[in-house]
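hey so u asked for the seq, here:
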Amino acid sequence: MTLVRSIQSTLKSDNLILRRTADNQNTFYLTSYPDFQAKVNEILSQSSDIYEFIVTIGKKSTEEGDDDDGDDGDDEKQLPKDSQYLLRERIEGINFALETLKKRKALPDAAINKLFIDLNKVKFPYLYFLPDVSKDNELTLAPTIIAHQSMTSNIARYVDKLIRPFADEKVKHLTFSNEADFMKKLMYYAYEQHRLKPTTLFCTIQITNFYSLDTHETMIETITSFLRDKSAYNTINKVSVNTIRNLLQLFLYQNLFSHRNKIYVIKKGSPNTMSLSQTLANIYLYDWQQSILNQFEYNQELFGRHKDQIFFTWNKSYDILSSFLQSLKNQKSNVNFRLSIGTNVHYFNAYVENQNGQLYTRVYHDPRIPRYALPYFTGHSK
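ran it, structure tokens below
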């Protein structure tokens, strides 16, 4: 502990901040605290379409990291009590809506009773930022909202448990479940189907706004349309799609969070620490990625996505693909992405190359990451 206190003291005296990087590796980034905070303020000012400022409350809170001790935000902290009035009215509204669903027998009593919210057990979500060093010579910050005990967390867990298995089953043919699954399908494409040609290109796409893809209204319409189209009787595990729609409305429109002494509401997307947020993004992108699949001839290409990362093969010209993806960006500008096209790319931790029709693969090591860094697991930082 003496060493930790010494580090904390040095950081404070030199006006520095030490943060774990956003790549889920046990690496840390040291920078000037004023520069870091200026970057935070810049991001917030440019995110008015995602986060809407509501009110300033109490004294300045330290949940975002003002103590400069290198804390990455894993410990939940309470806001001053004068923030509770913001929650009380919203919680009463959610509980009233849940009571209405209960009276209509829309959900089993045992299930819906677990969704009612007790104000005394709610912790106010808060926003903090982790350095993203994935770009050369450029520091960006990845926002993270800690919301595991928020007023919407029970609903989020219930809806995710309800629809995730159903959605995963419907999109699994277009999904890479992990690195091994990706390599297995790539090997099958190249060696069993013999579809890798000397001119075949590889393309990777990274969705950069995975957790804030669209407005709540559009997201709800997209999700319910998917569920209706893919379900036999407009029900998922004996729960009607209309009821799921009602629960999604309660979840998406009520996600508040704090940053320093300010309160915001999320206007697009939902907290990236909630499993449901990933499920909703996966369903939303299923519809979006059909635009890419429609460009394939006779289903001869390999295509898959893992969360915000897409990989596919291409057997037309580079110019046609580049022009199409630029057109896709322009026509569906709500989905932001970075892309890489060529005979060699890296995906997951694999480097893949088309060597004149022969597939070459090896382990890819990001030069920005120390070679012997261990992965970071949330909740097990020690």
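The longest strand covers residues 126-135. Residues 2-168+215-266 form one domain.
lmk if thats what u needed
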